[in-house]
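chain below, 305 aa
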Amino acid sequence: MSNTVNLTACKAARCDVYLAENMPDLSRSFLKRLFESGEVLVNGKTVRASFKLKIGDEISLTLPEAKKLDVVAQDIPLDIVYEDSDVLVINKERGMVVHPAAGNEDGTLVNALMYHCGDNLSGINGVLRPGIVHRIDKDTTGLLAVAKNDKAHQSLTDQLSDRSLSRTYFAIVHGNIKEDNLTVDAPIARDIKDRKKMAIARKDGRSAVTHITVLERFGKYTLIRCKLETGRTHQIRVHTKSIGHPILGDKTYGLKKEEFVLSGQLLHAGEIGFIHPATGENVSFSAPLPEDFEDTLEKIRLKYT
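prediction:
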């Protein structure tokens, strides 16, 4: 059975751009297919991707029925922080990919969820991403919310869109950040020189805002807390690099030579909060820093304080 999503435009913009910004878990290629198949209506009429929205326009998307998932369920241990009949909150370990892709067809969070939940996952995202509302990178650790039915998925996606779903990350970055608090407001898009990377793109990037608070300074390194206002791919990693403070251990955006031997960037999604889709209550969850993060932090404290 198909699923219909209704939105009311709160600003004037191209329809495809507006939907990309307000439904961040739907890829641009997926949205393009919806337009091409006539599944996007504005005020009851089929529109093209380039249609110019006005404030108050009623947008309706019909998402196709999820295809039968051709992904093997695997008995992979999960660190479950919370679970009920609507949502799961997972503390993802370093090295686990969230969903299958070329080169990572198994051993992913989706494979583990298929085993743990069986058919009790939302189908909004179709064949490769059941239940996945938002993602974190392979070598980033921490909290992810997973939807166990379509109603919960739509609720959490709406909260991502209106920025009421809160996500807080902790990181160790290179260098001494002088400000106690700062906001990086810099649009992000695919790097035109390397399509596997993201980059600041002032002209054609998607809006990206990260609020940074300094927790500890060590001269050579800084421990920070980052609150996401938006959730672009590699957002914190790109933003910290853009201000001259790449994340320690980041093999893509960081330094070529590191003082410490690390298996990935020291970036941890430590806190998440949202309105529960069924009860309407505000809920929040936290996860402690992983062992390698704590160990490196202690080494830095001993050496530089």
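Helices lie at 15-22, 28-36, 109-117, 150-161, 235-242, 291-304. The chain has a mean pLDDT of 90.
thats it, cya
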